[in-house]
Design goal:
Blueprint lengths: L1 H13 L2 H8 L3 H15 L4 E3 L4 E3 L1 H24 L8 E7 L1 H8 L3 H7 L3 E7 L13 E6 L6 E8 L2 E5 L1 H6 L14 E4 L6 E7 L2 E7 L4 E2 L3 H8 L4 E5 H10 L3 E3 L4 E3 L7 E7 L6 H15 L8
Parallel strand pairs: 3-4, 3-5, 8-11, 8-12
Antiparallel strand pairs: 1-2, 5-15, 6-15, 7-12, 7-13, 9-10, 9-14
Helix pairs in contact: 1-2, 1-3, 1-4, 2-3
Length: 304
């Protein structure tokens, strides 16, 4: 049955019997037969089939979540039973928001795979919250504060932010000596889908916020970083985005006496979430430990 369940998950993922057969290196008739046998064993129809599209039935949706957990737990059991000295192997599906994925995760994957050549990684860069069970994701990396109590999570790094601008921009515009000065500058903004954008600051026990505006908004930090490097304006971005550019002198930290925050309370953290399986997937821990080590080594530390 387990083999049929794996075939079922691949059909759901690709939305087609023929595509699943190609990926699994099977004859389309064999995939069809596996699904037929699975439906017979479950005494339930899993798919609504037509010449144009393939849709899950209500029972199919119910089975999907359980099937994902079944395969994940089975893989974890097999891994936990292997010799601890054996070279790690298996598959890992990772979902990570675009800017952190491109700047912090993607650069370390080649090193990780060279170290563990029997591990295969599938990564998706997307600025949305994914359903780990529904989309068969092993590990998701997000920013903010964990909310879903049904998932396990661990913090990767605190999401401290810095207000920065290029030397060229600062040489051509008014000085930024206090947070209120930012209202006179072109600020490059993370799009929070609000009519007004405030930047928050903390100094000792004093908190303040400043209404800022500018000619560029983005849901991800990468476009804002590129614009700041080109001298377009002032940006508030996370440590892991700007650290290399501050160290190289391409960006200059402003308002060093103040701690910038993404909201009134804090800037949250970069954290990883994964499903609460009965059995642990050692590849997840292996990858997270590697990511934490490499990311912490690159961070910009406040020395002022």
């Amino acid at each position: 049955m387990l083999k049929s369940v794996r075939i079922f998950l691949k059909v759901v993922e690709l939305g087609s019997f023929s595509k699943a057969a190609k990926v699994l290196n099977m004859a389309p008739s064999s995939v069809t037969r596996a699904i037929d046998n699975l439906e017979y064993e479950l005494k339930s129809e899993l798919f609504k089939r037509s010449t144009r599209q393939l849709l899950l039935t209500d029972k199919g949706y119910i089975f999907l979540e359980g099937a994902s957990n079944l395969v994940s737990n089975c893989d974890s059991i097999l891994m936990s039973m292997t010799d601890s000295h054996k070279e790690p192997e298996g598959n890992l599906r990772v979902s990570v928001f675009e800017s952190f994925g491109r700047l912090s995760v993607c650069p370390i994957i080649p090193e990780f795979l060279k170290k563990y050549p029997k591990i295969a990684i599938e990564i998706e860069l997307e600025n949305k919250v994914v359903d780990l069970a529904g989309e068969n994701i092993d590990l998701a990396i997000r920013i903010g504060t964990p909310k879903d109590s049904s998932l396990k999570f661990c913090n990767i790094i605190p999401n401290h932010t810095f207000v920065c601008a290029s030397p060229d921009y600062l040489s051509k515009n008014d000085n930024i000596e206090k947070p209120e000065d930012l209202s006179l500058h072109n600020c490059l903004l993370l799009n929070q889908e609000r009519q007004r954008t405030y930047w928050h600051f903390k100094k000792n026990r004093r908190n303040t916020k400043v209404l800022v505006s500018g000619n560029l908004k983005s849901k991800g930090g990468t476009p804002l970083l590129e614009a700041a490097l080109c001298g377009l304006g002032v940006v508030q971005l996370s440590n892991w985005i700007v650290s290399d550019y501050v160290k190289s002198g391409q960006l200059v930290v402003c308002l060093r006496d103040w701690e910038p925050l993404l909201n009134e309370q804090s800037s949250g953290s970069v954290y990883a979430v994964y499903k609460q399986g009965i059995y642990k997937n050692p590849i997840i821990r292996l990858f997270l430990d590697y990511l934490v080590e490499k990311t912490h080594n690159k961070l910009l530390h406040r020395t002022w």
